Amino acid sequence: MNTIRIKRIASSLQNEISDIIANEIRDQDLKMVTVTDVQLANDLSYAKVYVTNIFDDKKEKIIEDLNNAKGFIKGELGRRRFEIRTMPDLVFIYDESIAYADNIERIIKNINNE
Predict the structure, then answer these.
(1) What does R_g of the chain's alpha carbons equal in angstroms?
(2) Which residue range(s) make up the domain with 28?
C-alpha cells in the first residue's frame, strides 16, 4: 500500500484518538494522556498507539485502562468518517522516549557541570 496514504491515515488516527480520549472518555486519569505517535501496519490491520502522561507512576494503569477502552475508541472512530473500510486493531503502548530524552539531558548536564 502507498506509504504516503498510510502516514496520512496514521496522522488522522492520532488526531481523532487524541480527541476521543480528551472529550469522550469519562475516566479522569485518561484526560491527561497525550497520543505521541501512531504506527499503522501496511495492511491497516493494526495500529500501535504510543501514549504518554505527566504522571509517570500511573503508566501501567493508564495502558490497562486504554486497552480496556479500545472497543469504545474503535466504535467512536467508526462513527467518524475515515477513508478505510475496517478499523485497525488498536494496541496502546506507553512511550518511553520522553523519559529517555530527559535522562540523556540530565546526564549531559552532569557531564558539563563536572
Answers:
(1) 16
(2) 3-113
